[in-house]
């Protein structure tokens, strides 16, 4: 699984790509919708990493 920092960078890059595609094509273009799904999956991965760290016991 990726580190939280790596995921944050990927999230930022993909978020910017989504904004760029939306500006170029509009909200309903297939490339914008696909990029939105990619970003959704990265957000889910980030939350899994974040919440996994919260559940670790403190030793």
TrEMBL record:
GO molecular function annotations of the record: protein dimerization activity
Gene3D superfamilies: Helix-loop-helix DNA-binding domain
GO biological process: regulation of sporulation
Protein name listed in UniProt: Spo0E family sporulation regulatory protein-aspartic acid phosphatase
